[in-house]
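B., you asked whether I could sanity-check this one before it goes into the benchmark set. Here's the sequence:
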Amino acid sequence: MSTIGDISYRTKWLISKRYIQAAIVIGLMTLVIAVPFLTRAFALTDVRNAGVFELDGNIVKGSTTPLPTDWGALFNANGVTQPLPSGALDAHWVNDGPHAVTDLTTFTTGSKDTLDIANAGWQCTPSGNITPKDDILHSYSFAIVPQSGPRAGDLLVYGGFERFANNGAGDLGLWLLQDPTVACSSTKGAVSFTGAHVVGDILVVGEFSTGGSVTTLNMADCTVAPDTANICARSNTGPISTLPWSTQDKTSGPNTLATAEFFEVGIDLTGLFGSNAPCINRFIFDTRTSPSLTATLVDYAEGALATCPTAAISTNVSPSPIPFGGSANDTATVTLTTASTVSGTVTFNVYGPFSSPPTSTSCTSTSLVTPFSPNTVSIGPGPSPQMATSGSFIPSATGYYGWTATYNPAGPRNGNTVSTNCGDANETLLVLSIPKITAFDFTNTPNNNDPTLGSGTVMYTFKIHNYGASVMLSGSLTVSGSASVSCTGGNTLLLSGSLAAGADATFSLTCTYSGTSGQTVSATINAMFTDINGATHAVSGSPTTYTFTIQTI
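And here's what the prediction gave me:
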């Protein structure tokens, strides 16, 4: 295990391979309470001068504009998160007090950062006898991606906590964890934490030296850190109010924290990791016996903090049902839980045909419709929500088809991979059978029953049977040719009317003709139908033409 030595700015970032097989980034900040604090003329008011948060050593929001914000504007008197400013991802407030009440979230003796989280590495137990300087009262977190300003687009995380007393040396840590299941609470006896470390978890460690009336924060303090520093912190150099929420420390009046009982830190994760910043899901503030990685952990306060959005996907196949020969598309809508950018691809798959509506187990590799599937299209980039539509799918058979859609984000800042399931609502396509020409007859009666005269009467009759849902018929039966042709009511019979499911429609046209040998008479059926979605298609067997030739010899 690497150790942390004293280097310039007293801030070091280490990556160490641990026996739990997770690389953990460790940040050391030394907070010294020793000599009077002198404010610099160019002191930072936010990490990297982002201008979105007041790292000023107190809780009260001083700005009259939405940004920069402060803890007192993010939460109400009950710790409930208030409407967040533009670009904010998440904010949480955790109550770990008061000191007089048994604390259900304290570490058992022997819990250390160098141990795995689960399997008795970290354990919690209730305690009613926490050393005052190590007792956490409240903690809070905030994450934002500024939409403008010098750090626009960067992922910034802030943390703050209150402790019960400032007497004696004190040490603190802030874990930013990716596993959302990390947690522990016990009403009796030692209980192991759930969850585990993930490569990229972050630990920030700080030290309060022997107490005094004035606090000086060296090097990592925002007042002396350079504006290129990706991490800086502040503590209160005098008494501060905790309103809007209630707090009681050891020595002050109600809702007041004495010097060095409040701590806040800002971290530019993009500055540290570039575009590969980890997705934080939990934060844990702890107190500890020293800033060493092998220090024994004492009290803790844990809460949620989601820096990467969670994606949800909904889909709708349209139109449905369709007649055989028609086409349909699936449209996916991807929504993120935070004000983030949807970007990536959506892959659509179609399964079937099935004789009944598909279920969650129907869509298998053997029922996948290829080559249409997989059908991958781009989505975004753009603010949540975003939509993507599949290519047009033309089924090759009637029946039921099941669709699925999978969102594949471009990166963790664009959400997680998420899919619909086979059989989901609005993901079933029904393809109906269509009307069909089932019979065609024509009767040719030569004049005087003598075909050599080259003239006579012909009657055309055809039948359409509807195998699907109710439709409206349209189109025509047209008789023409090189011979002279004249039909009752005109040479074109217009087709019209509704045709119910399972019903037949019969049409006929009578014509007279005359001509010489070799001339022809043709009847062309061009039958159409309009389905329940308003789309018009050809009747099966149409168009078709029937021709006879006059023979006078």
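One thing to flag: Confidence is low (pLDDT under 50) at residues 1-43, 212-220. Otherwise nothing jumped out at me.
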